[in-house]
Amino acid sequence: MNRTGDLGTLIEQSNDLDWLLEASCADLAVEQLDLFFVEAGKSLAKETVAMCERCPARVQCLTHAYDNEIAGGYFGGMSPSRRRKLSRNDALAEVTEVAVMANAS
Length: 105
Ligand code: SF4
Prior knowledge:
The structure is a single chain. By secondary structure, this protein is an all-alpha fold. It has helices at about 5-10, 45-55, 60-65, 80-85, 90-105. It has one domain. It is built from 5 helices and no strands. The chain is globular. Iron/sulfur cluster (SF4) binds next to helix 2 and helix 3.
């Protein structure tokens, strides 16, 4: 697969994004990352929510947002407003709990 212009290229050019290689969104084109950046008050598409819920890199994605103080966009499937409300540890506990429940069903 030619990864020019896709997320794979971005990953290969970054030192701290190797966790994205395992992500459900790893094969999206860079332009498709808009899926995770919606207007305030709007929600992600159901398909995008499902992608994040089954993503093996969900915890790393959310951790990346907290560690880099990223204010916008959904990371780990969590909205910016939810991230502002939760501490890093509470947010990580929340997505881990969701993942455990999803795997149990
Ligand atoms: S959790 Fe993060 S890395 Fe995984 S699909 Fe969603 S946006 Fe991509």
